Amino acid sequence: MKVSYNWLKRYIDLSYTPEELDYVLTMAGLEVDSMEYLGEGIEDIIIGEIEKIEEHPNADKLVICQLNTGDELLQIVTGAPNVVEGARVPVARTGVELPNGMKIKKTKLRGEPSNGMLCSTDELGLSQERASGIMILGEEAVPGEKLVKYLGLDDYVFDLDLTPNYARCLGMLGIARELKSLQEDVKVKRPEIKINNDNKEDIRDYVSIEVMDKELCPRYTGQIIKNVKIGPSPEWMQQNLKAAGIRPINNVVDITNYVLLEYNQPLHAFDFDTINEKKIIVRRARSGEKLITLDDQERQLNEEMLVIADTKEAVGLAGVMGGANSEVTEDTSTIFLESAYFNPVNIRKTAKKLGLPSEASHRFERGIDIEGVVEAGRRAAYLMQEYAAGEVVSGIIDIYPEPYQPLEIVLETDYVNNILGISLTAKDISQMLNKLGFLIKGEKEGLVKVAVPSYRNDVEREADLIEELARVYGYNNIPVTVPESKQQGGKTSQQSLEDISRELMISAGLDEIINFSLQGKEDYELFRLPEDSRLREWVRIKNPLNESYALMRTSLLPGIVELLSNNAKRQIDRMAVFEIGNVFFRQVGEEPFQQELKLAGGSMGYPEDSWQSAAADFFYLKGVLESYFSRLGIDSFLFKPARQSFLHPGRTASIELDGGEIGYLGELLPAIITELDLKERTALFQLDLTAVIKAVNLDKKYSKLPKYPAVERDLAILVKNEINSGEILRLLKREAGDILKKVEIFDLYEGDQIPEGLKSLAFKLLFQAEDRTLRDEEVNELFNKILKLLRNFFSAEIRGN
């Protein structure tokens, strides 16, 4: 919305300079994107009258002009071919700098002094094309007057970035109302409306109106203005329209646009002589109906769209654009003037469906003042009377079956003060809201009853009124306070676990990512989920932006996989990431969904520099999780072979804690890896942090550094393929005794030298006592005990050299 400073002053006495108004508007919530002085660069150009022209004695193509500039007579030499005595022209005196950077100096041209310059439109930056002569002004131009004042460019234009809840400020009167609330003892000056009553005819003798869909058109009014003379609108009106970014067309069309910007009320003028049977019908479009709009484009309509029609065909697309078949032309003599209120949702859908945004639809779809429809229409009729020589036929047809009933809201002063952190009385609240145009219905024991005016369709509840109070009070006047917290002590256990998890993942070499919580079904298609999978229990958004963001996620893994894929396609060879976030599941009951906190991660391209190179990413993440559990004081976790629809069979493990599954770890299916251009053996994991938090033990016990040396032994055994190495490690840690301090697996071998159905596992055992140096006999005894345990539990055999 472009707002002219001079135009705005017609409706309210402003106590602000343009620079001050810039700040005031922004602080009132009407953010100013930019402020432009229309006369930028030509502020010092004045008007001069050529009183005398003489031939130059030393040049055939130059003349000497004597100019009256109001307070002095200037001699200027020029070569302009169109100078004549008596002409009013723009003059740049010595010392003035033109928009193109030229600085005017006192000079001599072929021996004759010249004290300035006569200017053309392109030299003044008023035209992009090179002019053939100087700019000639009208006879009403006054010598000595500033050119910017004569051209109406002595004005500032504010470009407002209005949010939808400020739709009322898409008109000058709406902005004036906002400024009234910020100033003391000022009133909004209503535009003049003085329609002659000489015409004794009745509008109902001219036209009839039928509204067939009152839901889509709650109010429709019409007037007749006859004997209009189509021509240009007055200069001041054209200047105001140009400042607002609207191109002047003719007096009738310009008046409808002028009132639109004045009242925020779109109007439309029909050539009444083109209306069949002199009847206006407001109806839904018929199936397959077409309309050529004012932009000469044929529009295919549907039954959801509202049209203005006569008894034969549509003559306008309601609230969006008029039809070419009823356009006002030079031959128009009688105007049917429409002023109406249309359903905002329907107008928005129509404009979007046809790709036809307009100044009218922009306002209708945000909601206008249904009670201001008649006044805006009468204002336009008055202006057509004054500037198009029109005769306004008596009466106005107003179809308004359900008049506006103000919404009433009760405000509690204690609640207001608690929200804003200030101290307002009921009287303060009443005065502030009254300045904004709200009607105060009563005050009682800390309560204020407020009626919402029709032009404030953005106010629906207490919070909306509190926002208005904050604006009037001044955001910068509200003291800075620390919000009161009901939380006792520091962070919750969940918050602490999130912090620890984040720290441990980063220290293990993973980068944190944050994905959207909204996803689409296509994000899960590659995961080959069975029909009964819990990951299909999506919570659907009621009004999604599009289907790609229609579902609340049930897993963090689709987002992680997409991110790894995008990076792999950009030649990123190595990447490890993690995310901490909520997932959501649909459920039946009082709560429509269940929320769970998860930790998930992924790795691709891990360096193949160990015996685990064939599954480096898998074992890297497994090591990360083992370290993670260890740091959290959890030692009752297990990795067990498992299956997931999107993970490789035989390379997938469930993660169990105290007998229950809390997550899984595995490699992606090769087919998924290939389709997404991922690195081979890309691996993922996901944990339920809600379950992890119950087992966390962060109590640390002090232990002395060992004084006595340790003894290391290697052990290579043969076991059946189906035996998991994790089970062997857990057995040894549980049964081998206190002096076995550490067990590590460092080799896995399956090949020609190993009998079929068996595999070789090699472990490194570290023995150490806290109170003595171990003797070989002690170590051998325990080593033999370990061999016996392995034979008894796993039928293990020692592998020979």
From TrEMBL:
It is an enzyme of class 6 (ligase). Residues 39-148 form the TRNA-binding domain. The keyword Cytoplasm applies. It is found in: Cytoplasm. Its EC number is 6.1.1.20. GO terms for biological process: phenylalanyl-tRNA aminoacylation. One of its GO terms (cellular component) is phenylalanine-tRNA ligase complex. Pfam families: B3_4, B5, FDX-ACB, tRNA_bind, tRNA_synthFbeta. Residues 404-480 form the B5 domain. GO terms for molecular function: ATP binding; catalytic activity, acting on a protein; magnesium ion binding; phenylalanine-tRNA ligase activity; transferase activity; tRNA binding. Belongs to the phenylalanyl-tRNA synthetase beta subunit family. Type 1 subfamily. PANTHER family: PHENYLALANINE--TRNA LIGASE BETA SUBUNIT, PHENYLALANYL-TRNA SYNTHETASE BETA CHAIN AND LEUCINE-RICH REPEAT-CONTAINING PROTEIN 47. Tetramer of two alpha and two beta subunits. This is Phenylalanine--tRNA ligase beta subunit. The lineage of its organism: Bacteria, Bacillati, Bacillota, Clostridia, Halanaerobiales. The gene is pheT.
